Amino acid sequence: MGTLAAGVAHEINNPLTYVLGNLEILKTSIKKLGISDPEIEETISSAITGSQLVKEIVTDLKALSQSDESQTCCDPCEVIRIASRVAMSDLRHSSSLIMDLPQVPQVALSSARLSQIILNILSNSARAFKKCDSKFNEIKISVEKNAGYAQIVILDNGEGINFEDLKRIWEPFFTKRTKSGGTGLGLSICRRILNEVKGSIEIESELGNYTRVTILIPFAKQVSFSPEEFQTTEKMLETLNYTPALMVVDDDTLVLNLITKMLEEVFLVSSYSDARMALTAFKKGEKPDVILSDIMMPDMDGNAFFESMCAQGAKKEQFLFMTGGAVTEDAMAFEKLMAGTNSLVTKPFQKDKLRQVIFNRVTSLIAVENTKKTEHLDDLSTQDDLTPSMVAELESLLGRDALKEQYRKLDQQIGDFFVQAQNLKARDLASLAHKVAGGAAMLGAENFAKTLRDVQKAAVEKDEYKIEKFLTDAKKTAKFLKHSISEYQNQ
Known about the structure:
Layout: H1 2-32, H2 38-64, H3 76-91, E1 96-100, H4 111-126, E2 138-146, E3 149-156, H5 163-166, H6 186-196, E4 200-206, E5 210-218, H7 233-240, E6 245-249, H8 253-263, E7 268-272, H9 275-283, E8 290-294, H10 302-311, E9 319-323, H11 329-340, E10 344-346, H12 351-381, H13 388-398, H14 400-421, H15 426-442, H16 446-461, H17 464-489
Parallel strand pairs: 1-2, 6-7, 6-8, 8-9, 9-10
Antiparallel strand pairs: 2-3, 3-5, 4-5
Helix pairs in contact: 1-2, 1-8, 3-4, 4-6, 9-10, 12-17, 13-14, 14-15, 14-17, 15-16, 16-17
């Protein structure tokens, strides 16, 4: 069932992505053009609502068929909402469903197992009424906190259960509905599932009046989430102060075109319908800030693309993966791995949400890089700008006056280096950095020499971002070095 659901989801979610996405773009474009027509707006909104309903149906199908044993917790209220929609085929003609579902923490049970319990109870409740009268017949579902548990109560005003039968309802194969296909296993299975997570289920009933089912499930370990906040294009550009490069890989060209339209206001998008082409572009020097790739692709899938790109120097943190539902076992395992690192985007996606996810990844990468840079510079500033033992040895060999002259020349070289570096090609910059680094190292200026070797390496790789970064490092180190040289000259 899980494999079937994943296959259905994959086949529906891709076309649904560009239907829903293009409807959102159309809605935005009409506003930009200043077109104000209530009928057009209502038509587009209705189409978006319909698309979102299809999305919900697919999501529900996946959630209810989820067989992943590694999923150990879920949102009980969300599972109840999903299960109630599925159960409505039984309920809509016989009774009305009333739900009170305030937000509670996640519980220590998978969505598949909890939905199995809820569907079983709702199915029993639907058959508790002798007559189909949705105005009188009621099923109420409520959720509340009870110490360290989520308490779920399902109450119906049906015929109830007689005392003798109530004593036997937990017995396997005990049923009063053999003609309608009842096996008598549902409640015993529900109880076993709940016992496994140290939960419980109790049933009380009064013949002719009601049946109340009370379920207790322990809360899972708390995980805090920040509220989702979508920023405007202007706010994103103001925060970033530059246009991040985004590489997008998906074998579906309609999805590629949609993503470009969605993101081109904020990101510099390069798109590839073949992961091998994207890999070749990266090898030739394309340097994306973030890489957004599909998982299920022919020839080279997302997993193989990820491994190949990382082998070429891409960082794992740069990747985000899109999924409409993995089908193969390998793809499912990779999807789970990416979900665990918060690197998974589910199709179909909304424009604002997709942009925010990528924006968040860019800003987190910048923050990490800035932290590394600060730590690197702090490291340098705590070390001696001139190695004392090297200075003492040079003094004994050259004499103090001769050594002062060498430091005067080094000081001049440092100034000349930064003036020339601004206008040099990468190859010439690498050569000059190598030359000055060698002289600085010979005179005991190891910190400065190290930063120049970083500049040299970046220039050889023709990585403009790293060149600029290491030149900035070198300038700060040079400032401390020049101060040390000045102090030595005045001794």
